[in-house]
Structure formats: structure tokens, C-alpha cells
Structure prediction request, 346 residues.
Amino acid sequence: MDRILVNVIRQFNPETAHNITLKLLKHIPLPLTKFEDASLVSNINDLTFSSPIGMAAGFDKNAEVFNSLSKIGFGFVECGTVTPKPQYGNPKPRVFRYSEEEAIINRLGFNNKGIDNFIINVAKRKFFNTPLGINIGPNKNSINFIDDYSLLVDKVHDCADYITINISSPNTENLRKLQNKFELEELISAINSVVKTKVLQKPIFIKINPDETVESYMDIVDLITKYSISGLIISNTTIKREDSQRATIKNEIGGLSGRPLASSSNKILERIYRETKGAVTLIGVGGVSNGKDAYQKIKLGASLVQLYSALTFKGPSLVNEINKDLVKLIKQDGFKSVSEAIGSGI
Ligand SMILES: Cc1cc2nc3c(=O)[nH]c(=O)nc-3n(C[C@H](O)[C@H](O)[C@H](O)COP(=O)(O)O)c2cc1C
Prediction:
């Protein structure tokens, strides 16, 4: 039934299709029953996850549908990226869908309604025990990116279960420079000063891009260890087009996600897990479209997994399907719970 709906919605351009989907999720009761199983439950950074599969950032930029996302089976939901002030983003068209490759290119540029509207929406959260991550980023025309992050951490800290510092979107000029050692140290220490003022300190994750050198990832690992950052989200979209032969994909500017991102994001996940060996939490993202893909990331060291692109191609029942497949895969390997499988493929 939802595959039919997905095909109907897909007749619209990707951004309109997304807006229709948000409206449906907001206003129509979902016919799906959430699949749950004890073997999928885990406790990470003092949060309980009913499933390791989460909604990646960018789908629910303004925190409007996190409730419905939890109901379709996600074990956690990351909302945002939210910026201090509302912003339109880049000119349209800015999202491109490639169904055969199960890939998306976007150059949205943090289109969102701003932090004040976002917080009002999160405050409506009642009886919602699914961990809610808040992904933050600076405004495009900000004079000082680090000040934007500090302000946002201060504002979202008490209503988030965890906070993601997004320094990896390719669609905001100069944002990725924050992944450089010196800039990143300045950013992390500014964020830490804000977090230290809070009574109950929340986990902080940094979301990284998949296009850097191994040395640069090792610098990041050193810094997050030095400053007790909870972990990394690996990864955001790629500006590389190595795994795609299609001229349209090669020539379109923006971040590529979906199937062609899987191998590069997995390589970085594996490399960083080898280095950190469970000392920090790793969240794997990029090209997950079935239970096997998700399980692969877990075996490569991800404690949690997120997805976005596949949901637009396969519809909401995908999340239950992945959870069911994961239960089987965990059992097949002789594990009692998903936590036992983390890093088992290394
Ligand atoms: C249309 C679109 C918008 C996105 N917006 C954001 C965003 O605002 N912030 C962010 O951190 N990641 C954003 N992402 C990246 C996803 O969170 C995810 O890291 C990436 O798509 C890889 O996962 P996937 O292959 O499962 O899609 C966006 C992705 C897509 C497709």
C-alpha cells in the first residue's frame, strides 16, 4: 500500500514530494504498527534506543513530524539542520532524484524556519520517549560561524537528547573548513564552554563529511578524545562522484547520498572504529536501504545507523522491514542483542 503511495508522490518534483510527505505524516494517522524486538534495544550514552535505526538529519528540518517518524519504527530521530535565523536556502531546483541508482543530490543550503520556531515545535513533545537529536548549523550570512553554534547549543541543550554539530554540509560555503584541525579545536572548545554551564550535560556528536584524507580523520579522532565529545556521525553527503557513471549525477552540483555513498562512508566508519575501538560512539549513515546494509555498518563499528534517501524510494514500511531483517541477522550470527554485534566484522 505504501509503495503505491510512494509511486504517486514520486510523480512530483523531489522537493514538492517531500513537502507532501511531511503534510501526510503530520495530519494522517499512519496505518503501520511499529515492529519491536528485545534484541534491538540498546543503551548508548545513557539513552535507551528501541532500535538502532534512526532518521537522519535533513528530513524533518523544523521538528514537525518526529512523532510520526518514531511510529513508523525509527529508534531515534534527528531533526534539523536548524540555524539561528530562518533562511530560504539556495535557488530551486535544488534536489535531484536518481531512482535507478537509488541516489539523491541536494544543494538545499539549510532551508529552515529558524531556531525559535524549532524550539516551539520540540516543546510540543509529549509522551515521546524516542531519543531526539537536534542537528545544528550556522546561517549562510553569519559573521562568525562559531558564535552561531555556541548560541544554538545553548538554546537547544535542554530540549535535546543529543546534539549534532553539523560541519559537513557541502552546501554552505566554507562550512567544511571547520573540519580542519585548528578551526575544529576552536569550535569544540567553544561548544564545551557552553555545555559546561548546563546541569545535566547532553551527548554531543560531530557529523563529518566523507571527502577528507585519513590524516584529517585522525586529527578529528584526537580532538574528540581530548575534549570528551560523545562521538561521530559518519557521514554526510559526498561531493565526489567516483561511484557513479551517470553524466547527470556527475555534473549536478551538491551533496550525493544514497547507494553510491555506501562504500566511501563505510570505509571511513571502519577506519575510525579501528582507531577508537569503542571508546566513542559511532553513528553510521550513507546508502542504507535494507537490513543487510544496516547490519554491515553495525559490524564495522556503528552503534547506531541512520538513513534518509532509501526512505524516499521505498516508503515508510522500509523501517519495519529493516528492523525485522536485523533481528534475523543478529540471531544468525549467534548474538543475543544488537550491541554484541557492534564492530564484530573488524
Ligand atoms: C534532501 C536531503 C537533505 C539533507 N539535509 C541535511 C541536513 O540538513 N543536515 C544534515 O546533517 N544532513 C542532511 N542530509 C544528509 C543526510 O542526513 C545523510 O547524512 C545522507 O543523506 C546520507 O544518508 P542516506 O544515504 O541514507 O541518504 C540531507 C540529505 C538529503 C538527501
About this structure: The longest helix spans residues 181-196. The two ends are 39 Å apart (CA to CA). The mean pLDDT is 95.
